[in-house]
Write a structure and sequence with these properties.
249 residues, mainly alpha, 15 helices
C-alpha cells in the first residue's frame, strides 16, 4: 500500500512537471498564427487600388483588418508594379495607422527608391513626428527625389529639432552636381526660413553669397524678417541681394 502511494505521487509529480514544461497547443498556435484572407478579399483590395485614395478608404473601411493585411502583402510583393506597391503602402498606412509603423520603417530601408519615397508619404498618413523621424533618416538618401521628399516632410511636420541637419545638408556635396546646386537645396532653404529665429542671422547672410539664385532669394527673405523691413522696391533679386550684403556687414 505504501509503495503504491509513493509510486502514485511520483507519477503525478512527473505528469505535473511535464504539463508545466510542455507548451500548450493554444500557446504554440498563437505564436505561429498568421492572418489569412481569401482570393475574393484580395481581388476586392486590388480593385480598390485602382481608385483615388478617398474612394479606396471607403471600401477598405468595411473590412479594415483584412484590407490591412492584403495591402501589406501587395506592398512588399516584388512581382507587383511600382504603382501598385506605392498605393498599397500608403493605403495600408491610412487604414492601419500606428499598426503600419513597422512596415513603413521596413519600406524606408528598401533597396528601391520608390519604396523609400512611399514610406515618407505613408508615414505622414500615420503621425507627423513619426514621419519626421523617418525623414531625418532619409535626408541623406542616394536618391535626389527621396531627399527632397524628406526635406518637405520635415518642413510639413514643423520638426524644428532637425534644423541643424538641414543646415548641414544645405552645403553637403551630395546636393551639388558638377558644382551646380540641385533643386533639393531650395527646399532646404525654404524649410530653414520657416524655422528661422533671431539666432539665424548669419545663416541667411551667408545665403546671400550662394551660387544659386533660389538660395539667395531666401537669404533676402531672411534678412527682411530679421530687420523687419524691405531694403528696396526693386523687382530685381540681384538688387535686393547686393543691398542686403552691404546692410548685413
Amino acid at each position: 500500500m505504501r509503495f503504491f502511494i509513493i509510486l502514485s505521487i511520483a507519477v503525478f509529480g512527473i505528469q505535473s512537471f511535464a504539463a508545466k514544461q510542455r507548451p500548450s497547443a493554444e500557446s504554440f498556435t498563437a505564436k505561429k498564427r498568421m492572418f489569412s484572407y481569401t482570393l475574393e478579399d484580395k481581388k476586392q483590395v486590388v480593385e480598390g487600388l485602382k481608385l483615388p485614395l478617398k474612394n479606396r478608404l471607403k471600401i477598405y473601411s468595411k473590412k479594415p483588418k483584412t484590407s490591412f493585411y492584403v495591402l501589406k502583402a501587395i506592398a512588399f510583393d516584388e512581382e507587383q508594379s511600382v504603382k501598385m506597391r506605392w498605393r498599397a503602402l500608403t493605403s495600408m498606412a491610412a487604414v492601419g495607422k500606428n499598426h503600419a509603423n513597422n512596415s513603413i520603417v521596413k519600406a524606408s530601408k528598401s533597396k528601391h527608391w520608390y519604396m523609400r519615397n512611399a514610406s515618407l508619404l505613408a508615414a505622414q498618413l500615420v503621425e507627423s513626428s513619426f514621419a519626421a523621424m523617418i525623414a531625418a533618416d532619409l535626408i541623406r538618401d542616394p536618391s535626389l527625389i527621396v531627399r527632397t521628399e524628406a526635406v518637405r516632410t520635415i518642413k510639413n511636420a514643423n520638426a524644428k529639432q532637425y534644423k541643424n541637419v538641414l543646415k548641414q545638408q544645405l552645403h553637403s556635396e551630395q546636393n551639388f552636381k558638377n558644382k551646380k546646386s540641385l533643386w533639393v537645396r531650395k527646399h532646404i532653404a525654404e524649410a530653414l526660413y520657416k524655422f528661422m529665429d533671431t539666432s539665424d542671422k548669419q545663416l541667411f547672410k551667408e545665403m546671400l553669397y550662394d551660387v544659386d539664385p533660389e538660395i539667395q532669394r531666401f537669404g533676402v527673405l531672411g534678412m527682411e524678417r530679421y530687420y523687419q523691413r524691405r531694403i528696396t522696391d526693386s523687382k530685381k533679386l540681384a538688387q535686393h541681394v547686393q543691398e542686403w550684403k552691404v546692410q548685413a556687414e
